[in-house]
Amino acid sequence: EDFVVVGWRRHIFDGRRVVRYELTANASDYHVQRFFDSGETSCRLAGLPPETAIAVQVRMQLDAGSGSESEWLPWESQTVTTLQAVSVEVTAVRPNSLNGIIHWGSSPLLREGPTTTACALFPKHFSVHIEQRGRVLSHELPAFDIPVSPETAELCPFVVDDVDTNGTFFVKVRAVSDFGDNGKWSVPVKFLTLEPVDVEVSNVAETEVLVRWGRGEDDDKTMTDSAIEELVLVVEQIPDQRELDLDANAGNLRVDAQVFGNEIRKYTVKALQPGRRYLLRSRYRNTLGHHSEWKVIGFRTLYPVAPVDVQLVGHNFIQVKWARELPPDSPVALAAESVAEWEVRCSVGGAHTSVCLPASETETKLMNLLHGVDYGVDVRAITPWGNCGQWSPVVAVTTLHRLVPRVPHSGESWMQVAWDRKEKRYEDNIERYHLQVNCVTSPFRVAKYFPATTTQYSIENLKPDTTYLVMIQAFSDDRWGPWSEPVTIRTCAPCIPLLARRGEDFVQVRWDSEYYKRCAVEPSMQRYQVKVRKAPIDAVDGGQASVAPTEETVLDLDSPAHRFSHLAAFSRLVLQIRCFDYTLQSWCGWGAETEFRTLPAVIVLTHVGETHAEISWPRVPRLLSAV
After folding, report:
1. From residue 560, how far is each of 171, 522, 524, 579 by CA, in Å?
2. pTM (predicted TM-score)
């Protein structure tokens, strides 16, 4: 870098003696002229500037002999350029060591200079010295020799160990040639050693984590001696097994990267995914732009809370159970990892209410709910440091609808009541049922209790053609549920005969059975009984017909109509009808008595009042003309 060794030799041998040699070297700011004896064949030109072209000329003076004047031969000249100066670069700083690289020319190994083979193109080694505040730490930091050869394709970075932590240092390098020549020291480069990042991960939650770090420096350090300028923080997500199955070469995904000034000491990494593994890489950058080594910390976010498991559902309560959603073969202890309390939320429409439970409780019963309402239930975990996790997926739960009683069949004196719910999607703990049948027109009431396995019952001994209200409620969870909506049901009316035709000696009647209509009994299966009481008129006394002792007859019929013939004129006929109940396999009760009369054969005074009289007369046979 700062010298050139010039050598020469005599190439003319004509018998004359060399008297001396003359050498001149000229550069922009350098001029030298020297004379050498005939025995000297080389010269070292020192104090030259680096990367400078030097024009060197050498000539020799020969002795002419016989007292003649000496003769100077022509100049032999050559231009040579001094080598580029060596420079050093610090590439990495660790707590007690540094990495550097030596630059010597346009590339680490390509040194520009003379192309003459007589010149040393490559140094034998480099000497590296480190000084701290002007003092060479030779006893702790001796010079390091780094061999270099032309075959070396790449200059490996040199490493200097045993450097004091958090110190301010200067490093310089010089080259030593094969001839033992020492090059100039490079310009000293200042560097600061750095402690590794004193970083810790705390307050790990499902979607965020708190990162804290310290400077790792003594308190008496001034800002000018501080090695830390900023902290570089990178967060990477490690691929899980599912992603590796899709792509075996899947790498880490960078999810966050931040640079913090010297005054910041903590940062919350957010928007993470629950239950995933991450790498936290951090390193310091000093005031000279050097970086410490990466410090890598691995952590895993908390597993999310799984959807609630609906254990039991009633009319006014929902019992649920929950835990964290763990992968297979995970320890059970992770189900309640880092939980200070659980927050259970129950929502309906746009409104919601929540309750906080201790970490030891993973099951609860939501009470005082409305029956037959769709509720949404979800849970989230709250960590000991106050971080709220994600809400679990909402599970829609419908409380039990009120029981719906049904009367599928009914007769004149009985009804069959059945009950069920609109839907039954969840397990319940109904213990028993309470059924009530109330008469609308009288204080009559039937109250029955049934076990949970019974869902229908037949009630007998009811009044025909009477309206009843049927209600039912269920007993579960140590309390009675709401009453069902009352169901109105009317028992069947008994058969009532209606007059179809009549004459002086006959009465034709017809009737309908409401029971047969409700139960859709085929006409061929219909059975009736008609109770007949006849009373002929013997005399007329004050307009009132005297009645002789009755004659009672029961007829079995299979059609809802009958003609009673051979009756006396203006006689009374009292009828009662009943039908056969196939459900009870017995006859229904007799219907109300209905009286019919044949037409009279003579004028009959049927009623006499104070100002009027009522008479009846027979029909005139329609022989010649119409009546």
Report:
1. 127, 13, 11, 10
2. 0.55
